[in-house]
Specification:
InterPro entries: Lipogen_MT_Stabilize_sf (IPR053719), Spot_14 (IPR009786). With about 120 residues, the chain is mainly α. It has four helices and no strands.
Length: about 120
């Protein structure tokens, strides 16, 4: 998680003019991290990553009585079939993968912004 926050912080410190990211596509990388993101520009990625940081810092679940619709309810019969340790491991490994992909995306936004600034400075 520290790598994620470090990448987001670096992106926020580097990107001084987010409007320069408008209209710049998030090109698919060799490792395929951009395959599902072709319809968004870098500005949208920047804003999404920046807002996501607040989500992680403030807490994962909203306070209130209602359960979020994105978290499936665990039924007693499922708990008996799978050990709680296996379920915990599954969710933690999924969280790790999500944070890894978000870190890569933040690094890509930072690199692309640096390329844009380099081209502007050469002009």
């Amino acid at each position: 998680m520290e790598k994620y926050f470090s990448a987001i912080h670096k992106m926020e410190q580097t990107v001084m003019f987010p409007s320069l990211l408008r209209g710049v596509s998030f090109e698919e990388q060799e490792d395929g991290i951009g395959a599902d993101l072709a319809d968004k520009d870098l500005f949208e990625h920047f804003m999404l990553l920046k807002s996501g940081k607040g989500f992680w810092e403030s807490g994962l679940l909203p306070l209130g009585k209602e359960k979020p619709h994105v978290i499936p309810e665990v039924k007693e019969e499922n708990v008996e079939k799978d050990s709680l340790e296996d379920i915990l491991y599954y969710h933690l490994s999924s969280l790790y993968r999500v944070l890894h992909h978000l870190t890569q995306r933040a690094n890509t936004v930072t690199c692309k912004y640096n390329e844009i600034m380099g081209r502007i400075n050469q002009s």
